[in-house]
Design a protein that fits this description.
Keywords: Membrane, Transmembrane, Transmembrane helix. This protein is an alpha+beta fold. It is built from 1 helix and 6 strands, in the order H-E-E-E-E-E-E.
Length: 141
């Protein structure tokens, strides 16, 4: 005696709607969105935190009479023949910037010496940064 019975039915309205089949397209869409966002974040990080095409480091500095300081810098570039500009600065005893100067770095030059005038007695000098974007008043044609 075999009786085929139908699956039990739930009372209508008591347990809400029955669950739908999973929507795989949502998983794929969120996966693709995560890959795109991750790629954009990685690209922005590389552009902003990657190695600079031109940089400089201080080699020596020496205090001069009359609130001035001489500084020598070594410039490193990805294209040694391309001219650039570096900003050097002095700091006073409190650590505040007391003098600043833009220095033109001709193509083919790797070491630059300059003198920075300061508004107060300078105690140190350093390189603020370098760029290939040379202002018109510094360019030497």
């Amino acid at each position: 005696m075999s009786t085929a019975s139908a699956p039990p039915s739930l009372p209508e309205g008591r347990y809400g709607k029955p669950p739908r089949a999973s929507r795989r397209w949502r998983v794929w869409a969120f996966g693709i969105l995560a890959v795109v966002v991750g790629g954009v974040v990685a690209w922005i990080g590389y552009v902003n935190l990657g190695a600079a095409p031109i940089s400089a480091e201080r080699v020596t500095f020496e205090e001069l009479p009359g609130n001035a300081m001489s500084i020598s810098i070594n410039v490193t570039r990805d294209d040694p023949g391309r001219p650039g500009v570096c900003i050097v600065r002095t700091r006073d005893l409190s650590g505040a910037e007391s003098g600043r100067k833009e220095v033109y770095v001709p193509g083919g030059t790797s070491r630059v010496d300059t003198v920075i005038r300061s508004i107060d007695r300078p105690v140190t000098a350093d390189v603020y940064g370098c760029s290939y974007d040379i202002p018109a008043y510094l360019s030497r044609s």
